[in-house]
Amino acid sequence: MRRALAAGALAAVAVVAMSVALGGFRAGQLSLFLVFAALAVSLDFVWGYAGILSLGQLLPFGIAAYASAKITLAAPSLSVGALIVAALIGAAVAAGIGVAMLRRRPTAVVVGLLTLVLSLTAEQIAEQWRDITGGFNGLTGVPRIGAFGTELSDTAGDIVISVLALAAITVVGVGVSRPIGAVLIGIRSNERRMEALGYDTVRCKIWAFTVGGAVAGFAGALYVHRTGFVSPQIFGFTLATSVVLWTLVGGRGTIVGPVVGALAINFASATLADVWLQYWTLATGVIFVVVVVVMPDGVVPSLQRLAGRSAGRRRQPTLLPADAEPSGAPPHDGAIFEAIDVRKSFGFFRLIDGLTLRMDEPELRCLVGPNGAGKSTLLDILCGQQGCQAGTVRIFGQECTGKPSWEFARNGVSRKFQSPQLVDDLSVATNVAIAAWGADSSPWGLARRSWNAPIPPAASEILERTGLGERLGARAGDLSHGDKQWLEVAMALAGNCRLLLLDEPTAGMTVAESLEAAALLRDLHARHGLPIVIVEHDMTFIRAVADRVTVLARGAVLADGDVAEVEANPQVRAIYSGVDT
Amino acid sequence: MDALTLELLNGLSTFATLGVVALGLGIVFGLMGIINLAHGEFVMIGAYVSYVVHANGFSHWLSVPLAAVVLFVLGGAIELTLIRRIHRQPEVTILATFGLSVCLRQVAELVFTKDFRGVPNPVPGATRAFGVLFPTYRYVLIGIAVAVVVATLLAFTKSRFGLTVRAIVADRDLAEASGIRTGIANLCAFGIGAATAGIAGALVAPLGAIEPQAGLAYLPGAFLVVIVGGFNKLWGVVVGALIVAGVQTGVIHFYDAVWAQIASLGLAVAVLQFRRVSVEGASA
Amino acid sequence: MGQRRSRLTRSSGRTAVMLIALISMIAAACGTSDDDPAEAEPASATAAPAADDGPASTEPATEPEPDSAPATTEAADAAEPDEPAAPSGEPVRIGILFSNSGPAGIFGQPTANIAEFIEEDINAAGGINGRPVETYLADDATDPAIGRQAMEQLIESDGVDVVLGTHSSATREAAKPLAEDAGVLYIYAALYEGGECSAVMFNTGEVPSQQLAPVIPWMMDETGGSKWFLLGNDYVWPRRSFELARQYIEAAGGEVVGEEYVPLGTQDFSSVAQQIAGSGAELIFPALVGGDAIAFETQAVDFGIGQDAIGRLANIYEENVLGVMGPSVTAGMRVTLGYFKEVDNAANSEFVSRYYERFGADAPPHMTFSSHIYDAALLYAAAANAAGTTETAAVAAALEGLTLSTPTGDIAITGSRHLSQPIYVAEIQSDGSQLIVQSFPSVEPDETCTP
After folding, report:
1. Where are the domains of chain B?
2. Fewer CB within 10 Å: C terminus or N terminus of chain B?
3. Is A289 in CB contact (< 8 Å) with chain B?
4. How far is A289 from chain B (nearest CA, A)?
């Protein structure tokens, strides 16, 4: 955070010096392009961090610009106050769209199209609503920035606008250097994982969209003070796509990228468009295509990588031993978990067909069954990844049916997926820290909290015993398959873990490794009293680990008991020997 | 009564135009999951093909098949060089095809200048039918457009070729495992999508101005149709064109063209917001 | 053109220096934001003076007084010594803000061509107060936000003494405050809706009252029609034109049977055509621009409401658009404007043949926009010469009441800071050519302005 502030302050000093030195026109250009840079950074926050491709970032920008123009035209002495109002309006616009749109979990394509269509609709409305918006010609003659009746001189006004734009950029820079930055990257790259860790990802996205809207709204007010006018074309296709171009070319998911992109492209087009009109426009198209295909991360991250610096180099969390860990089952009425008459079908295919299952005491339970028996689906239902069409699910006595998976997670359900689900772009330590923060996370809290992450002993043990503790700085995506498996187990344990669900933890392990894994899990269970449910095929492993085995077939419980009982069951033997009964 | 007949015919010609313009966009999205923002430029190039045909003294009718061929080749080339690298990432295709659209517009400006061009109506005048006079060319346009839309959709939903292409494109993993034929299937889907855009461009050319920016005017309408009709249904193009044409003709009739545009945008917002849209494979 | 480009390139050198300095600085500062801040410090410390350094090596970096020394020599090259004494000294800078790209970009090339004539002709006549003139072109891309930036470039970077504009009203509204703040004279030369009034502005384009007041009664006499249909694109100029047209029509005993607006970029006019057909209109006044005009007229013929059925009086149909429609569609249409290249006077004939000799027979046609820019430049030169200075207030005072004879005809600046000018009605012939069938000399604009 101090670094982001320092960088912002240095940039501000340099911009002021440059504005004073160059003066007049160039200072004006610089201030306008910095306002565009702030707009690009707001898009970057929404797109590059939270993963929402908004083609409608001009909605908060434009609406706030109109509002700011109206306020300032009516009461010129309020122009500074109008900046704050504009930021609030931008936030409100974005929050409204975000709540309506993102709660329905739309695909990226739908988000892009919807925001673009909304933007084009706003353009039409701004043209038609002549009394308020001034129609096609827009509102003009907006005074330059000032306060209490004084209007600043040209260059002074430009410098103030430049500095305010940099301030907005710095605020975003500080924001993403907080834990929330890592969490948003997590949501962008693996939303399912983040939800299973207890993050209300929809709320986080709406929050990010709203904050992005506030920054865009602030930039919109700066824009209107800088240029003195606003017209419906502020919502138009040209500017909407230009912002995307600046952000994309500069580099998403970094703050410096969009700033460089906005400044470089705007200065280049201000200079080249006069000399080289047709070819410059063609060149922007070519740049767009080439960057998308060849360096999708953008120019700045690519250059950083060329210069030998890790592009994803970010602040690393400090993993601390937790004071007390949530271990074993919390006080509860009834079973640890129970699923009553649960049904789930996909098309005509019944995945789970009237299944009832419960766990009363903390135990190590294995779920076995042939392919298609419904094992993974059952785990999905027990952790809220999938809903069910009928039946009831209770976790520690709490009714959880139909709730999103982050609520299951906050009730203490932790899940390891069949194929490891990590945030590949972040380090091992950050993955673990994100898991630890997930239990009680609000976006504002994550923006304020420290980089310390309290890690329960169970998770620390796994990190140490698997050697991951030595490689906390490594990028998660670069780990071997086995290490990814264990990192995911560590993540599952790092959160508020009171019930652990493991989907094929030994896939890809040698016999020796899987026996070691079994020992590790038994140890965890014994020492922390942790209830564990494991989906497995490997009978050697099951014999080594299980207290009790439940056999599923065709979406229902076929048999239940300790390993010996189940192995003796003729129906089970029939299934496993391939004889249908 | 006559007024109603005329309005119905107007609606029908709007429907046919929208349908044939949106067809390629719908195919490429439905089959490949690609949002092609350069689709309007394909239509624009189709219109320029008809201009070149006219300028060289040939019949306008020649330009319809020729535009299909030219755009099939161009679309194929774009698929091979660009789309192939990115077609699994819908977000990336939006960005890349946007850049492509800028390039195509600018190249058209370099080749043809930004002057307006036009081609004369090959069948001027009006025909009396159903008790009203209605432009002959629009009857022709409705006929050809409906034929192209129906033939293309039937080809993709009923013919052996179409089913093969769809199967391959839909089950990507299986198809990829089976080797080179995915490439050919994608090439065909994208090429045919582009070719129908070319036909659309040649068909609408006699009704208005041909200029490098014209694609920007076609794109919103095409998107509206595909959005309203449903992304993942090939026949959705027909449904979408029907609904959009109905809304536009209706609003213009009772109110005016400006509000017709706003109403269409509102319709798109409502559909996007309240209908679940799948990005994965298409059904008939 | 060569000179103007070299000037731009020089200023771009300066931009480049600044750009590189800025980017390296920010990249250095922010890029290390996750590393040691101490690391970032030296980088920006070197970068900040670097921005100073570039320009400072050639000229002191105070207020930008761009292109001071070298511009003079170039201007001397450009001057063609004729009978009057060759102009010398610091050039008078004439900025031209115009649309060279975007939807209105189609009108850009004639204006760029005419800019050459402006330099040549004013310099050949002795320049302004003995000083040569230079033109600086800036493109608004038909976008007011870019137009505003272009205006800044002209006023603050190029340091022009006057801006001549031919672009949309939206750009004018966006750019005007800059001219007012800087006290730079701004002559807006495009036809527009009227109503502009500012201390630094003169408006020399046709306003609707000029295009319509004399022509509407004439049209009704000529054709015998009295029922009008008004069809326009949906923005301020058609709306204002129709507001006035309605008054003139009613005053002349006519009737407006329909008034419709369509969005810019409309492609299908079938429903509108049907409304017109059912309205009983005898005359159509289409205020449509560009592709919309082409789409409407080509479609209208087949709906039985072509020019042969319902006469047209257009106020913006120009040669490019009419050419695409083709004579079979356009023959018989009337267009009312302040200038056609067919205007019949010796000065104009000479001017037009010179234009096509210079820029080729297939050059984009010289038309009302480029002609008004040329006239605006001549008006400015005459006023500045009369005032003996280029100081804005003095030139503005000299402009009021100024009369001039140009290829357009006899023009005069009115007390309302608009232009009293001839209005011509051209009728499209069956070969597609424009024939001037009526001219109204010295039509006064119905404007009031006391800034």
Report:
1. 2-282
2. N
3. yes
4. 5
Residue recorded with tokens 């990257």: A185
Cβ atoms of B64 and B47 closer than 8 Å: no
B136, B208, B257 ranked by CB distance to C272: nearest:
B257
- Main-chain phi, psi angles of A386, to 5 degrees: -125, 145
Whether C1-206+344-421 and C213-314 share one fold: the answer is yes
CA C104, CA C107: separation in Å to the nearest integer?
Answer: 6
Provide the residue type at A205 as one letter. K
Q: State which amino acid sits at residue A317.
A: P
pLDDT in tens, C211-256: 999 999 999 999 999 999 999 998 889 999 999 999 999 999 999 9
pLDDT in tens, A49-73: 999 988 889 999 999 999 999 988 8
Answer yes or no: is pLDDT of C31 > 60: no
Report helix, strand or coil for A551.
Answer: strand
What SS3 state is found at C284? strand
Q: Name the residue facing C291 among B126, B138, B211 (closest C-beta).
A: B211
Give the Cβ contact number of residue C402 at 10 Å: 18
Of C262, C271, C298, the CB nearest to B208: C298
At position B101, the amino acid (one-letter code) is S
Please state, in angstroms and rounded to a whole number, the distance separating the CA atoms of residues C121 and C98: 20
Q: Which of B8, B43, B114, B204 to mutate to test the interface with C (most CBs of C within 10 A)?
A: B114
Q: How far is CA C271 from CA B221, B225, B238, B244, in A?
A: 17, 19, 21, 14
pLDDT band at B39 (very low <50, low <70, confident <90, very high): very high
Asked if this assembly's ipTM is beyond 0.90, the reply is no
Among candidate residues A12, A185, A149, A168, the one with its CA nearest the CA of residue A72: A149
Would you identify the CATH topology of the domain C213-314?
Answer: Rossmann fold (3.40.50)
Q: What is the pLDDT of residue C4?
A: 45
CA distance A105 to chain B (A): 9
Under 8 Å CB pairs connecting chains B and C tally to: 100
> Residue A245 corresponds to which tokens in the numbers above?
């171009």
Cβ-contact A267, C12 below 8 angstroms: no
Query: Quick check: A328 and A441 in contact, CB under 8 A?
Result: no
A73 CB burial (10 A radius; 0-12, 13-18, 19+): middle
CB A218 within 8 A of CB A61: no
Angstroms from C14 CA to nearest CA on chain A? 10
* Residue A158 in tokens: 């430009």
Strand partners, A392: A340
Nearest residue on chain C to A170, alpha-carbon basis = C30
DSSP code of A139? B
Distance, CA of A210 to CA of A457 (rounded, Å): 37
Q: How far is CA A537 from the centre of its chain?
A: 34
Please report, as a single letter, which amino acid is at residue C445.
P
Name the class of domain B2-282: mainly alpha
Contact C318, C264 (CB under 8 A): no
- pLDDT given at position A458: 85
How far, in Å, CA of A451 to CA of A434, rounded?
10
* CB neighbours of residue A529 within 10 Å: 13
In three-state secondary structure terms, C246 is helix
Please determine, for residue A294, whether its predicted confidence score (pLDDT) is greater than 90.
Answer: no
User: Phi/psi of residue A453, each to 5°?
Assistant: -130, 120
- Measuring CA to CA, which residue among A371, A331, A324, A379 is closest to residue A355? A379
The domains found in chain A, sorted by start residue, are: 2-234 (no CATH), 337-426+497-577 (3.40.50.300)
**Tokens linked to B277:** 């849209």
CATH 3.40.50.2000 at C1-206+344-421, yes or no: no
Spatial neighbors of A303 by CB under 8 A, at least 6 apart, are none
Residue with tokens 């003169």: C202
What is the model's pTM? Answer: 0.86
